[in-house]
Amino acid sequence: MCELLAMSANVPTDIVFSFTGLAERGGVTGPHIDGWGITFYEGKGNRTFKDARPSSDSHIAKLIKSYPIKSEVVVSHIRQANRGCVSLENTHPFTRELWGQYWTYAHNGQLSDYEEKFASTRFNAVGDTDSEMAFCWIMDKVVAQFGDKAPDDMLAVYRFIAALADEIRALGVFNMILSDGEHLMSYCSNNLCYITRCAPFGKAKLIDTDVVIDFDKETTPNDVVTVIATRPLTKDEQWNVLGAGEWKLFKKGKLLIG
Fold it and tell me: DSSP string spanning 132-182?
């Protein structure tokens, strides 16, 4: 299956360290060789980089590992294809516009008997993955529930999405990351964990490659950064493991729901 990576922070922060570890799983320490992608939010805009090549052998991935793009919300994915061919249009994360915001989504898992359930009208899949069809279905359901204007209570929106994710999980494995550029939601089917880093900061070493960082030298005492991943990325930190059906919602690095 695929692997997920996401970040929520209270200040613009780069994800070079975590992405360096994830990229190794795309062909070196893991079998996820069927493409990768990453989306960085900057205000209301975002920039997305995708490649159908393995992340461990991608010139674009090398750029991401060497160029510290600062962002408060990041969503990333490395793919091991099971539904849909290996192609750029099937590479996560996927993005759609709703309520004047870009929503970004990535999925790890495999679903069955979903074609009829995921019939949608306003949002349509470009590729042929179960993942993108599920995303479009979620977005359709959100519009049907809340209308064409964003509600004042965005937490209610995410609680509704969590209920939809419960329905999807009945069709197979559904680990999901979803963001509207402000909030970051993680939903677990079987493999998802997170860590929130805040003062006092220490050192951390990646599991997948010999890279060490001293966060105390890279941060300020007020920084709060949460990283979500399919599996822990570091050896010497305590990651929080989510259970089946459990979900979390973060904003500016801090836990809102969960």
Answer: HHHHHHHHHHHHHHH-SS--S-HHHHHHHHHHHHHHHHTTB--EEEEE-SS
